[in-house]
Prior knowledge:
The protein is an alpha+beta fold. The chain has 2 domains: 3-96, Periplasmic binding protein-like II (D-Maltodextrin-Binding Protein, domain 2, 3-Layer(aba) Sandwich), CATH 3.40.190; 106-136, no CATH class. The protein has helices spanning 37-44, 63-71, 81-86, 116-130; strands at 3-8, 28-31, 55-59, 77-80, 92-96. The strands form 2 sheets. Strands 4-1-5 form a 3-stranded antiparallel sheet. It has a two-stranded parallel ribbon with strand order 2-3. Strand 2 (28-31), helix 1 (37-44) and strand 3 form a beta-alpha-beta unit. It is elongated, with a radius of gyration of 17 Å. The two termini are 24 Å apart.
Amino acid sequence: xxxxAALPTGHPLAARTSIGIGELDDELHVADDEADPAWVxxxxxxxxxxxxxxxxxxxVQTMDELLEVVAARQAMAITGQFVADAYRNPGVAxxxxxxxxxxxxxxxxxxxxxxPLVNALRRAVASVRTGRNETR
Length: 136
């Protein structure tokens, strides 16, 4: 799924339909002092394609904290499109980043679970992955 920049509303890039990762080079990015540093760097695209290291700001551990830090103009974040679809904060705008790899999503279920709901979920995920509609 695509990745987006979470920016404070009113930010010069917030009203754009998409941006390039290089346009975020001078922005302070949220950190997570409790997470694996490699994971934090991957989400922040650190170092950036141009070689510039990312500068980190406040550490957050939850999505609500992340949105509050962004809305307060303390830092920005890069996250998955699902966050833009599932979370709302009037002080945050989500802008697609056009030139970075999407974030991978995984579905994990018990191998021996063949309940109708789990089977339907597996088919739905497979149809998205393959582009076929298999929702029976």
